[in-house]
Amino acid sequence: MNAIAYLDALRNALKDVMEPFIPSIPMAVYFGADALINSCELKTLVVQNAPRVVIGGQPNELYTLVMIDPDVPNPNAPHLSQLVSWIVTNIPGGASCAQGTEIASYVGPNPQIGVHRYILFLYQQQARLDDIDAIESRFHFNVEGFANRHNMGNPVGLSYFNVRRQANGRNANA
């Protein structure tokens, strides 16, 4: 994908969520043995279990991974947006998210209408986060507000994919 196509795909993935940014910390996302390619469409059966996420950065730095669905319940009327699907804090740089602290357990995508975007944001922490309140509701989450409350600033990494639901209610990829 050339730079212009990449920026267009990034703008589309982030619309109504935040301003586009250029990731500075690499992250690799694997569902099973397959590496995620940004903007691809995945089958719900493939994404029902938490992915393995490996991040760049230095071992003395800590990161937070947040995954959201900004299109819930319907991409044309996302009145419950954002749905938080997963939060892992205190991930050491150069490590897997399995070495972090899971704050909100992984909930696999299950769109009810249309094509939903699923976005994984990576934030650099200023310090270890041990006092995060439990997430009361997965609906109406605000990823930027969460990052600001915990002094994380702007995201430093990003990965995203799509999952489709057919009009007849059956998953298009099942």
From TrEMBL:
InterPro entries: PEBP (IPR008914), PEBP-like_sf (IPR036610), PEBP_euk (IPR035810). GO terms for biological process: positive regulation of seed germination; response to abscisic acid. SUPFAM superfamilies: PEBP-like (SSF49777). Gene3D superfamilies: PEBP-like. Pfam families: PBP (PF01161). CDD domains: PEBP_euk (cd00866). This is Uncharacterized protein.
